[in-house]
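Q: Here's a chain of 695 amino acids. Please give me its 3D structure as C-alpha cells.
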Amino acid sequence: MASRLKLWRDRFAGRHSALPTLDVLASAPPAGDALENRLNWLVDVVQWIRRPGHDVEAGATPELQIQAGRLKRFLDVLDRNPEWKRSVAQTLRSIIKETSALELFTETGLPKQFGMVHEMGERLARKLLPPAGSAELGVLFDRLFPHAHDDEWIEKLDEATLQRLHDLFEFEAVAEERSWGDLTDELEDALFQLAAQLRISGCSGAIRSRIKHGRIRELPFFKLTGALQAVVEARKNRDEATLLAGLNHVRGLMENCHQALEEVLGHLELRGVSTDVVYQLAFLEAALDRFGALLELNFNAEVPLMQIGGFVARLVRENRARESVRELLRQNFHLLTRKIVERNAETGEHYIARTPREYGKMLQSAAGGGVIMAFTTWFKLNILGWHLPALPQGLAASLNYATGFVGIQLSGATLATKQPANTAPALAHRMQEVRDPAAQEELIDEIVYLIRSQFASIVGNLVMVVPTMLALHLAILAVTGHPMMRADRAAKMIQSLSFFGPSILYAGFTGVLLWASSLIAAWADNWFVCHRIGEALSSDRRLVRTLGTSRALRFGRFWSKNIAGLAGNISFGVMLGLIPELAAFAGVPLDIRHVTLSSSMLTAAVASLGTPVLTTAPFWLAALGIAGIGFMNVTVSFSLAMFVAIRAREIQSPERRAIYRSLLHRLLRQPLSFVLPVGPDGSSKIQEAAVTKSP
C-alpha cells in the first residue's frame, strides 16, 4: 500500500507521467537523430530503469533489486527483438562516439580547484538552473543519475547483467564503430590531465610551504607526469619489464604524494587551519584517488566487468557528493571545526579543578569575577538611566559588558558561564579511547571534575556579586540619598526574573551566545596562529625600534596568549549589548539572561525596595528563576559545545552510550563528588589519586 501511495504521489508530482513505456523506448531509439535527441532517449531509458516497480525477487534488498530487475527486463525485451536490439546498440555506440569522456574521468565528482565560496555558488547554480546540453559524458552523468542513491543499485549489479550490457554494446558492431575498448586514448589523456593538475596544485606555494624540504623538483607531485610518460612509452614499445617497473614507480610516487599531504595536514593541526588550504587538500586527495583508479583501469590487461561497474558507481557517488552544498560545507569545515575544538580544549584545561586546592582556587577566581560583574551591573543601570536612543544604548551596553569580561580575563578571575563552552571540547579530547575501561574511568573523572568546577564557579560568582552589589547600593545611598533603582523599575526587574516568565527561554538563548563566543574565540586564535601574527609582532622593525627587542617579544607573546580570550569576551559583550536592541527594533521579544548579571540585578532591586520584599512571592519566584537561568546558561552552552566536539572527533553512538551509563553509575555511587571535592567516604583521596593520572 505504501509503495502504491508513493507511486501515485510521484505521478501527481509529474515525475514519471511523461516517461515513455518500455516498448516505446526499446523499439524506437533515435539512432539517426541529433545527438541531443539521442541523449534525451538515454536519459528516459535510465529513468525508466530506476522508476519504482514490482520486479522484486526473493533474497535481495527490494529497493536495489527493483532497478536490477527492470534492467534485466529491458535486456530481455531486446533479446526477444533482434531488430530493436540492433538499433539500440547502434544508438549507444553513436552516443559514445560523438561525446567526450575526458571530463567524465577528470572532473566528474572531483572538487574544483577554485575556492570554497566559488564552488558553493557553482553548486547552487547547478541545483537551480536547468542543465545545458553538452557533448561531454560528464554532463550527461548529471542527467542520468540525479538521485542520491543511484550508485547503490549500479554497484550491486551482478557480473552476468554487466556481461549482457557489454554484449549489447558489441552487438553486430562493425569495425568502424566505436565501442568500450576505444576509450584507451581518453583514459591516457585523463591520466595526463590529472597528473598536470596534481603537479600544479601540489607544487603551489600554499602546499609546498608546509612540506619540509619542499624544493619543487623534489616533490612527488612534480615527478608524477614524467613517470607516467615513461610508463606510456614502455607500453607502446611493448617493453613489459620496463612497464612493470614504471608502474611500481608511479605507485610509489602516489604513496609519497599521500605522505606529503599528511605532512601538510599535520602542519595545519599545529599552525592553524586555512579553509583555502583545506580545500586544496580535498582536491589533491580526490585527484590522487581518481588517478589511481584510472591507472588500474588503463594498464590492466583484462579489467573485470565488476571493477568497471564499481568504477561507474564510484563516479556516480562522487558526483552526487560534489553536487551537495551540505557535503561541501561538511568536508571543508570538518578540519576547521576540529581545530576550533582543539583550541577550545587547550583553553578549557584551565577551567577544570581536579584537586581540593584547585577547587579552592576556582572559588577564589570566581569570587573575583563576581566583584567585577557587580560593577558591570552598576554601570549598566547608569546607562539605562541616560535614556539613550536604542542603538547608542546598545553600543554603550556592549562596551560596558566587553570591558567587564576583558577585566575578568586579564585579572585572572572567572565568569562561571564562560566555562562550559570551553571545557566541553576538553572532555571530547579524551573520548577517543573510551572503550578501554581505564580510559573510560578517567573520562568519567573528568566529567565529575567539570561539573564540580561549574558549581564552584557559580557559587564563587554569586557569593561575591551579592555583597558587592549591596555595598555599592549603600555607598550610592549614602552619597546621593537615593537607592540604586527606582521602586517601579525594581519591582519590574523582580517580575522579569520570575521562573514562570520568559527568563528561562532567554537564558537558553544566552547559552547559545556563550557557545557562539567560544567559536569566535577559537576562530580568532586559529587565524592568529595561521597567519603567524604573534611572530610578526615580535619581529616588526617599527615595534622593535619603539619598544625594544625584549618588550616587542613580550608584546607578541601577550597577544598570542590572550587573543582567543579577548575575541571571545569582546564578542560576547557586543552580543549581550546589541542583540536585545536589534530584536526590539525588529519587533522580536528577545532579551538576555545571564546568571551572574541577573543575580546582581535582583540584589539591586531588593536593596532598593527594602527587606520586606524578601517575604513576597515574586522575590522567591525570581530566586527560583535565577537557579533556572544558571542551569540553562550552563546546559545549553555545554551541550552545543559537546555536540560540535563529538562531531568533529567522529565519536560514535556506542561510545556515547557507554559514557552515559558510566556517568549514571558514578552519580548513584558518589553523588556528593559532583559538587564537592570529596570521595565516597567524604575524603579527598580519590581526587588526589585521580589527578596523578590526568595530563
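Q: Can you summarize the key feature?
A: Confidence is low (pLDDT under 50) at residues 1-17, 53-62, 680-695.
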